[in-house]
Design goal:
Elements lengths: L1 H70 L21 E2 L2 E2 L9 H8 L12 E7 L12 E8 L12 E12 L2 E13 L4
Antiparallel strand pairs: 1-2, 3-4, 4-5, 5-6
Length: about 200
């Protein structure tokens, strides 16, 4: 009788060991997955921050350019400096229907492709303040082609509203690239005004 009880105890011990191993695997596998993903997440966050910095650099450069043009009298307002091509990029509604070509309905990559249809790195439309402008310097003191900004003005009254040429929506798209592939992009939109003195 004694042997029978021991065999029963040995069998229950095996079940406990299997349950403990299963529990440890249930905790360990997700933990391994999580720790292997954190470098990817950190990389994605870094690209996003770099793209934001590029967009901010574009905004700063455009602000200085606009101030200079207003100060020296080259510009008396924003009329004639708005982005209007590709056709419809500045018009939110056409005959009461949402315009699919409106810049806010396009991704950053779609906007950049629409501005450079043949993909040669040169803008195919007028009235861009900057197009894929580099601004950073790498460790060897050379221009770093990975970081660029594209900046343009949109008439915030286009497609309706009271027309005036004293304000505009300044749009700055910062991009981070690896070769020709865009790793991340950030778009800033800031309403800028011109006050006649």
């Amino acid at each position: 009788m004694m042997n029978r009880g021991r065999r029963h105890e040995q069998g229950s011990g095996l079940i406990v060991v299997i349950m403990v191993v299963a529990l440890l695997m249930g905790i360990g596998i997700p933990l391994l997955t999580l720790t292997s993903m954190s470098p990817k997440v950190a990389g994605t966050m870094r690209y996003h921050e770099e793209a934001f910095n590029a967009a901010e650099a574009g905004f700063d450069a455009a602000r200085l350019l606009i101030e200079e043009n207003m100060t020296n009298g080259s510009w008396s307002g924003f009329a004639g400096h708005y982005l209007t091509l590709p056709l419809g990029i500045d018009i939110p509604m056409i005959l009461g229907v949402p315009n699919p070509s409106y810049f806010r309905r396009l991704t950053d990559q779609e906007i950049l492709q629409a501005l450079d249809l043949n993909g040669d790195g040169t803008a195919d439309v007028p009235n861009l303040l900057y197009f894929q402008q580099t601004f950073a310097v790498n460790g060897q003191g050379q221009t770093d082609l990975r970081y660029t900004y594209t900046v343009f003005l949109i008439n915030n009254e286009a497609g309706g509203g009271l027309a005036n040429n004293t304000d505009a929506l300044l749009v700055s798209i910062g991009t981070v690239r690896a070769g020709t592939r865009v790793l991340d992009s950030v778009r800033l939109e800031v309403l800028v005004t011109f006050e006649d003195e």
